[in-house]
Write a structure and sequence with these properties.
Layout: E1 8-12, H1 18-32, E2 37-41, H2 45-57, E3 64-70, H3 78-86, E4 94-101, H4 109-119, E5 123-124, E6 127-131, H5 151-169, H6 186-193, H7 196-203, E7 208-209, H8 219-223, E8 229-231, E9 235-237, H9 246-250, E10 256-257, H10 263-274, E11 281-283
Parallel strand pairs: 1-2, 1-3, 3-4, 4-5, 4-6
Antiparallel strand pairs: 6-11, 7-10, 8-9
Helix pairs in contact: 1-5, 3-4
The structure holds flavin mononucleotide and iron/sulfur cluster (SF4) (2 copies).
């Protein structure tokens, strides 16, 4: 059966919008190849449930699955990993993990996603790491990787999708190994994996709340991608906070803030130390 009559599922979590832009570029390319595409955001619980239900109910129709996440402190977001863990067996399904990263370090994110997909029996047909503006940069004087993904990044994404499409159409069931799609290996990779997302989160600036400034407008809860803000009527931030800072960025009164005074220097030092080329890379 040709891929065109089967279809592809594009799933992603995108707190600040760059991973969604990458997902849309993937969708456009697939549609240009006459592939039927359905796409879902995984950030909120409801989105994950819907994507899982659609995938389960239409088993056999989706033979190609793209799963995307931003890199947060080396790792993919928990919502994305939870989605992969809850998927049924992916035996015979072609999968493509993709990440967007802010030009600092793509970390162990693709490796972790590839390993989880492989555990499900999936064929790892490709992977992509896509450079995007660093989503913490709005707080800095100069954004890191501002303007990315640009046209060159977009054409790399297109090439990657076309290469995967050729593999699937050609019934090429050879699978990449998680290490084939990992920029880091050995001790460096092991150190990055240590402690997972929670360890990285603990190092990120906390959200501070000043009740005296809050006008109870509710905008913070509206922009929280994981739905972890409860309005009572002032906001309370739950344990599932991923430190995306959308709430602090949006609060019109400055009632929600984070101390980024050391972050810019920390990021700059890491870029200089790791020297990971700030290029969008396709693994096929
Ligand atoms: C809390 C946080 C941690 C981040 N950690 C990294 C990182 O370790 N390496 C990196 O290159 N970019 C990092 N970034 C930048 C994001 O990976 C990048 O901006 C991504 O494209 C955001 O995707 P989104 O716009 O879909 O949310 C981080 C951003 C935030 C907010
Ligand atoms: S956005 Fe700011 S002012 Fe509005 S409810 Fe949230 S904290 Fe309060
Ligand atoms: S509470 Fe704020 S920082 Fe935490 S996930 Fe929600 S929007 Fe992002």
């Amino acid at each position: 059966m040709s891929l065109n009559s089967i279809g592809a599922l594009v799933t992603y979590c995108s707190p600040a919008g760059a991973t969604r832009v990458a997902a849309e570029a993937i969708e456009r390319t697939l549609r240009s190849l006459s592939v039927n595409v359905a796409s879902f955001s995984l950030c909120a619980k409801e989105g994950r449930e819907t994507a899982l239900r659609v995938f389960q109910e239409s088993r056999g129709r989706f033979r190609l699955l793209f799963v995307g996440s931003p890199v947060y402190g080396f790792h993919p977001l928990p919502a994305v990993m939870e989605f992969i863990r809850r998927l049924p067996s992916l035996d015979g399904i072609h999968t493509v993990p993709f990440v967007t990263w802010g030009g600092v370090c793509s970390g162990s994110a693709l490796f972790e996603m590839g390993r989880a997909l492989e555990k499900k029996g999936a064929i790892l047909s490709g992977a992509m790491k896509i450079v995007a503006e660093h989503s913490m940069s709005w707080a800095f004087s100069n954004p890191f990787c501002g303007g990315r993904p640009d046209r060159k990044d977009a054409s790399r994404i297109e090439e990657g999708v076309k290469a995967v499409h050729r593999k699937v159409e050609g019934n090429d069931t050879s699978s990449l190994a998680p290490l084939d799609i990992s920029t880091y290996t050995g001790d460096t990779l092991a150190t990055m994996l240590e402690g997972g997302f929670e360890k990285s989160k603990a190092r990120l600036p906390r959200i501070e709340f000043d009740k005296t400034l809050c006008v109870e407008c509710g905008q913070c809860a509206e922009v929280c991608p994981v739905g972890c803000i409860t309005l009572n009527p002032t906001p309370a931030i739950g344990e599932d906070c991923i430190r995306c800072y959308n709430c602090a960025k949006t609060c019109p009164e400055g009632a929600l803030t984070a101390d980024f005074s050391k972050s810019e220097e920390v990021i700059r030092t890491r870029i200089e130390k790791l020297r990971e080329p700030q290029e969008t890379t396709v693994f096929v």
